[in-house]
Amino acid sequence: MTSVTFHSNPVTTVGELPSQGAALPAFELVGQDLSAVSSSDLAGKRVVLNIFPSLDTGTCAMSVRTFNELAAGLENTVVVCVSEDLPFAQARFCGAEGIENVVTGSAFRSTFGQDFGVTMDDGPLAGLLSRAVVVTDESGAVVHTEHVAEVTDEPDYEAAKAALV
């Protein structure tokens, strides 16, 4: 269990992020076209998981825009933006915003939140994912994690980028 805050009020999550050096937990999400987005599809690539509550908030939308810009300059790297938003909402957002360099994945029918320890267990956003970043190397080993202490704050983009070098 991790303690974070939402508007300075304590919130707990169901577990912990994977530790550095651990293998990335297997996952399967739902893509914009309703096809599977799975960890096995990303084998041999560096992966950045941008995890957040919902595209319908300013901070979450900004994180997707920022990681989209970052992804444009990264080789052999896939940025996956993960939330509980339905695939249709993710597709609508990406289309309206011109988001083309990231993959979106909906966790609405998976155990992703529990497996990564990011499902908020209480508070007004209970059931949604907290804000976190997980970065792996090409072998699938976790090289960086950040569980953002205040859900309404943006992640440390520079730290995520530095972990890819």
UniProtKB/TrEMBL annotation:
Q: What is its EC number?
A: 1.11.1.24
Q: Which reaction does it catalyse?
A: a hydroperoxide + [thioredoxin]-dithiol = an alcohol + [thioredoxin]-disulfide + H2O
Catalytic site residues? C60
Q: Which SUPFAM superfamilies match?
A: Thioredoxin-like
Keyword Disulfide bond listed? The answer is yes
Q: Which Pfam families match?
A: Redoxin (PF08534)
User: Keywords of this protein's UniProt record, alphabetized?
Assistant: Antioxidant, Disulfide bond, Oxidoreductase, Peroxidase, Redox-active center
The Swiss-Prot or TrEMBL record annotates one GO molecular function as: thioredoxin peroxidase activity
EC category: oxidoreductase
Report the SS bond pairs: C60-C94
Q: Which residues form the Thioredoxin domain?
A: 18-165
For this protein, the record's PROSITE patterns field holds: THIOREDOXIN_2, TPX
Task: Family membership, please give it.
Answer: Belongs to the peroxiredoxin family. Tpx subfamily.
Q: What does this protein do?
A: Thiol-specific peroxidase that catalyzes the reduction of hydrogen peroxide and organic hydroperoxides to water and alcohols, respectively. Plays a role in cell protection against oxidative stress by detoxifying peroxides.
Q: Which PANTHER family match?
A: THIOL PEROXIDASE (PTHR43110:SF1)
What more does the record tell us? The active site is a conserved redox-active cysteine residue, the peroxidatic cysteine (C(P)), which makes the nucleophilic attack on the peroxide substrate. The peroxide oxidizes the C(P)-SH to cysteine sulfenic acid (C(P)-SOH), which then reacts with another cysteine residue, the resolving cysteine (C(R)), to form a disulfide bridge. The disulfide is subsequently reduced by an appropriate electron donor to complete the catalytic cycle. In this atypical 2-Cys peroxiredoxin, C(R) is present in the same subunit to form an intramolecular disulfide.
What NCBIfam families does this protein's entry cite? PRK00522.1
Q: How does it assemble?
A: Homodimer.
- Would you tell me the protein name for this molecule? Thiol peroxidase
Species of the source: Brachybacterium vulturis
- Gene encoding it? tpx
